[in-house]
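Session log. Operator J.P. requested a structure for one protein chain; no other inputs attached. Running the standard single-chain path with token output.
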Amino acid sequence: MFWTKNVCRLLLKYFASKPEIGRLSQKVGNFRILASSCLKCDRAMSDCSSSDDISSLLKSVEVSRLMVPGDANLSGNVHGGTTLKLVEEAGSIIATRYYNVAKKKLCPDDYESGAAALVRVERTHFIQPMYIGEVAELTAEITFTSSHSIEVCVTVWAENIIKGEKRLANKAVLWYVPLSLGNPPRLLSVPSLPCVDPKAFEEGQKRYEKQKEERANHQHTKVRHIRPSVSDEDIEIHTVSYSQSVLRHLMSVSECAGYEYAPGGVIMKLMDECAGIVAFKHCRTNVVTVSLDTTNFHEMIKKGSLITLTGYITFTSAKSMEIEVVVDSELVRSGEPKTVRAVSAFLTFVSLDENHRPVKVPQLKISNEEERQRNDMGKLRYEARKRQRLESQGQS
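Structure written below.
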């Protein structure tokens, strides 16, 4: 059921004021507010044609959801994977809507129904944490389109509906491509974004060319499958082998949103869960996600596939740890034991004390040359992130 935003806020505030919030929030958290779809197209642009048609094209969407106990760890911090899944859902909604609405209106003779598939997530930094009982408010906006791709910017706000306070929690940029609904799916063309300022288009074109080149040159880590130890007592603590984690998951029908393939947000949530296990085992403290490096999805994961997520630490600084997660997919119903590497990503975690303040991370113990090489590369990535963060702070 779809509700208006104000009505939902009143309901959430009512539920939050009750002593049985723990039980009620589990029920309330199952619905999402998909409201206030708004038009951002500038009708005053002199070069816009068919203004009546353009005025009906939806360029942004808002999604809100109450954070419930199932979304967080024991300390009440909402999992980074939960946020990433919500971000991807918002992006998928607006990208799929734009393709279908714009294509019907602007190119009716060439229209074929389709759905947006995630192919890339730019580096995402978790600015502020979210907690149980807060409302995540996401705004997704299309910022650029090429002939076959759609760039979406998603902003996440965390709202304390009791205190009436709101803070910026996350901002992400995602790239989608529209695919036909047939099997196998085909890549579809995207109508140009209407009413775009020439300077904004030029900047968007540069971002598109940059990500296109990086995707073409990207190679997954050729890490072999790691066999978990039968007993942790056999492995030295704070080594790669000690905290490594292997998570297996069968992609069910309910997770595929009615399509033949799993949404990118579902995969990112599982990747964050796998990395979180690694981080927790290494530190034995409360751990939270602070960033996800640029991630490219090269293979779609079909419904009914068995996916294997392998996570391990690559580098530790004084107060953070980098964890790589690789995802392999196997379509078990095909009868052929063929496994493909669908996606890999680097996530950064920090360790927190009981007051949610960062504490020192146990340093990684290197056991062999392969681990040393990964550690050296991780250090370079850590220093690059640090420079980028300092540059962003200087610009702001």
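Operator note: The first helix runs from residue 5 to 16.
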